[in-house]
Amino acid sequence: MAINRALCGDRTEPLCSRVYRQNPSHWRSAFMRCMNALFRETHHCESIHARWIETQGQGIDCRETTPDRGPGISSA
After folding, report:
1. What is the pTM of this model?
2. CB under 8 Å to 60, separation ≥6 — which residues?
3. Which residue segment(s) compose the domain that 21 sits in?
4. Of the N and C termini of the chain, which has fewer Cβ atoms inside 10 Å?
């Protein structure tokens, strides 16, 4: 939480959720594996993203959904 606030500011989308929304890549996979190990969860970033959408996601356009990444931010 402290790292997220330092990098992204207060009341912003959590870093794990931001990473989860990115296109599949080696750095994304590595980050997600590290977070799973750190928090001892199997799908940490995905669960953080889902909670963000449920509780804070008013600014996210859920119409832009891809089956592998979930909702994205509108480009408009």
Report:
1. 0.63
2. 13, 52, 53, 71, 72, 73, 74
3. 2-65
4. C
